């Protein structure tokens, strides 16, 4: 790319047309990814192996390029200017005979490192190109279109130790020991008991009958017993309704609940 | 133009050899998200291909393999061989402690077997949910015993050999008695729950009782 | 007991025959879109199976076919043969166009891994934008590696199995031109002259690190 040298030929007056073209180029330079990238582009003008590059010549090209850009009042990012300053320093080191009293690396060392950086960057670009030229998945080769997912089957096993078992038994027994009032359960009618009883009784309930009339004998007076039996009967009634054995109705909120046997022929 | 040249020119337009066509349909079936018809295969393949013919070869090639070419309607797909379905499952085993209701029910069955559900409820003081009994049955730690010769002929529950094996017992009679439990300090465990808790109804048997009943009405 | 009997008895507890194991890994590889490791295969196969051995057979079986068994890192996958890509327009996925910066950054990570952001910037001569790294992370082509044991403990980047899979690489050592780049000394991290003056303390560690990097690529 010989443009840089041609464009910024020193002292040569440039016409409007040429100037526009130059600006276009400089704007394009904005697209460079930093000074190293620009240096790499400029180095191509030398048409030699990057290992044999003349860093001095490259530094001069770069400085000329930057001067040219400044002349055209192109805003240059700071790192381009930093690199220019550094290259100016490098140039002076390379041109002057080495001063043994001076500290720091020699011009040759610095130049060698710059050459290495350029070569490495170029190598990475080539590698990236080779990588992207490979066969790629989803473009050149493909994976399975309908993968079958592995089903995670979670199996739960329950466990208990003998101690758990004995403690559990002890717990139920302790309850007995400390709770003579388990006898209170005399005043409790279970759902099963009520259900059993109701099943037998509804055979006779041809017409609407109040649920209260189903309370078993001896359970109507004691309030605790009555409460338990009513609740159990009511639950049993719901269960039987659900089973389609009886019908249930209530005229109003808190009104007595009535039930009657459901006609067998209505059964589905 | 020599014969050779003519042949070469013709071969430019010839379909690829059948082996090559087989490779093609193999790749398409593999990569396709849906079963592919012969027509679609041919539309994708170079001109003059015979996908149906290639399919015959491919299906034969996969006979008895880990995957098979199956026909789905008028399309084809690659599927796992049916006998290898087990490879597509990954079993994770999780061990959990038995719930308190379950372990108590189990203990009562072990100590009182054969025992009816009503008797278990009588001893525990709460109703036994069906889920609990089902769980123990499913674990094969309990099974049905003989029906009790009382009205209603209720079923009884007994513990199984698996139960004995799990707890390292030779016989359910080997279970320590109440006296031994007491001397082992297992009976002084804690004051009785229930009475005081019944008012709050929180997180104890009373609650469980309610759950047990409501379960009965579900289904 | 004759020898024959002994053999028969033993075979009851033996792993399935190798042909059967081959079918199994075939089924699992076909079912999975992602590469599967030998370890994972064996965890799904019956006890005593030798998935690596079965893999040797299976790979041979698929040589030259429309799909091939490929190795990705320490896992295996089935992929369609690259020469048949032209059949798959329908399956082709439009990959997001990567910027030049992203492609270069990716290549630098692949060839220099594990590599820090500062090292990438040193190679490219410009700062690496966060969007570039984020994009590569999001594509799951790169991931964080170990932190570098240098001041500041910077994170490093390495390429992933997805990256290898996408570019059909068995492992990072197979990157094109890697050997040449290494022998040309272009993968060394060479500090700029004069840098040692200010960073003497770091130097040893840096060197050790550099050795670690090149070791990664050696057999």
How would you describe the overall organization of this protein?
The complex is a heterotrimer, with one copy of chain A (268 residues) and two copies of chain B (219 residues). Chain A is built from nine helices and four strands; from the N terminus they run ααααααβααβαββ. Chain A has 268 residues and is mostly helical. Chain A has a three-stranded antiparallel sheet, with helices on one face. In chain A, a hairpin with a 6-residue loop joins strand 3 and strand 4. The radius of gyration of chain A is 50 Å and the shape is rod-shaped. Chain B has 219 residues and is of the alpha+beta class. Chain B folds into two domains: 3-86, Arc Repressor Mutant, subunit A; 100-217, Orthogonal Bundle (Arc Repressor Mutant, subunit A), CATH 1.10.10. Helices cover 47% and strands 15% of the residues of chain B. Chain B is built from eleven helices and seven strands. In chain B, the strands form two sheets. A three-stranded antiparallel sheet of chain B has the order 1-3-2. In chain B, strands 5-7-6 form a three-stranded antiparallel sheet. In chain B, strand 2 (67-72) and strand 3 form a beta hairpin. The longest helix of chain B is centred in the N-terminal third of the chain and has 14 residues, at 18-31. Residues 6-10 and 189-219 of chain B have low confidence and may be disordered. Chains in contact: A-B, A-C, B-C. The A-C interface holds A 33-37, 79, 104-105, 109-110, 112-113, 116-117, 119-121, 123-128, 130-132, 134-145, 147-148, 150 and C 30-34, 44, 77-82, 85, 88, 91-93, 95, 100-101, 103-104, 106-108, 110-111, 123-126, 165-169, 175-177, 181, 184, 186, 190, 192-194, 197. Strand 1 of chain A pairs parallel with strand 4 (89-97) of chain B, so a sheet runs across the interface.
């Amino acid at each position: 790319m010989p443009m840089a040298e041609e464009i910024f030929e020193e002292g040569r007056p440039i016409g409007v047309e040429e100037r526009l073209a130059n600006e276009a180029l400089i704007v394009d330079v904005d697209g460079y990814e930093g000074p190293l990238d620009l240096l790499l582009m400029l180095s191509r003008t030398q048409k030699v192996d990057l290992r044999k590059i003349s860093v001095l010549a490259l530094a001069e090209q770069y400085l000329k390029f930057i001067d040219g850009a400044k002349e055209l009042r192109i805003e240059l990012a700071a790192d381009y200017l930093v690199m220019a300053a550094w290259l100016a320093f490098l140039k002076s080191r390379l041109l002057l005979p080495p001063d043994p009293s001076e500290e720091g690396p020699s011009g040759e060392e610095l130049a060698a490192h710059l050459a290495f950086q350029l070569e490495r960057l170029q190598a990475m670009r080539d590698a990236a190109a080779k990588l992207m030229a490979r066969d790629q998945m989803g473009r050149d080769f493909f994976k399975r279109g309908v993968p079958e997912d592995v089903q995670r089957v979670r199996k739960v096993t329950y466990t208990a130790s003998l101690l758990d078992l004995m403690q559990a038994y002890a717990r139920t027994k302790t309850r007995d020991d400390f709770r003579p009032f388990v006898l209170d359960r005399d005043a409790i009618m279970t759902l099963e008991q009520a259900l059993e009883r109701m099943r037998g009784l509804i055979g006779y309930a041809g017409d609407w009958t109040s649920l209260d009339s189903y309370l078993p004998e001896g359970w109507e007076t004691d309030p605790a017993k009555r409460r338990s039996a009513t609740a159990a009967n009511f639950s049993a009634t719901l269960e039987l309704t659900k089973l389609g054995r009886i019908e249930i109705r209530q005229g109003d909120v808190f009104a007595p609940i009535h039930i009657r046997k459901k006609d067998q022929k209505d059964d589905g | 133009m020599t014969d050779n040249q003519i042949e070469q020119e013709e071969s430019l337009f010839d379909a690829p050899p059948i082996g090559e066509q087989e490779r093609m349909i193999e790749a398409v079936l593999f990569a396709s998200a849906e079963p592919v018809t012969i027509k679609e295969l041919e539309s994708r393949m170079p001109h003059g291909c015979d996908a149906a013919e290639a399919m015959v070869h491919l299906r034969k090639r996969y006979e008895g393999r880990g995957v098979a070419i199956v026909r789905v309607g008028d399309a084809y797909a690659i599927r796992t061989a049916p006998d290898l379905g087990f490879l597509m499952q990954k079993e994770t085993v999780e061990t959990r402690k038995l719930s308190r209701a379950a372990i108590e029910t189990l203990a009562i069955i072990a100590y009182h077997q054969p025992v009816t559900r009503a008797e278990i409820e009588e001893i525990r003081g709460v109703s036994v949910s069906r889920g609990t009994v089902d769980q123990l049955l499913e674990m094969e730690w309990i099974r049905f015993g003989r029906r009790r010769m009382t009205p209603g002929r209720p079923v009884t529950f007994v513990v199984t050999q698996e139960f004995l094996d799990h707890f390292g017992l030779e016989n359910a009679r080997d279970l320590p008695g109440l006296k031994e439990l007491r001397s082992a300090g297992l009976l002084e465990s804690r004051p009785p729950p229930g009475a005081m808790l019944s008012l709050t109804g929180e997180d104890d048997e009373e609650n469980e009782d309610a759950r047990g009943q409501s379960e009965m009405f579900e289904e």
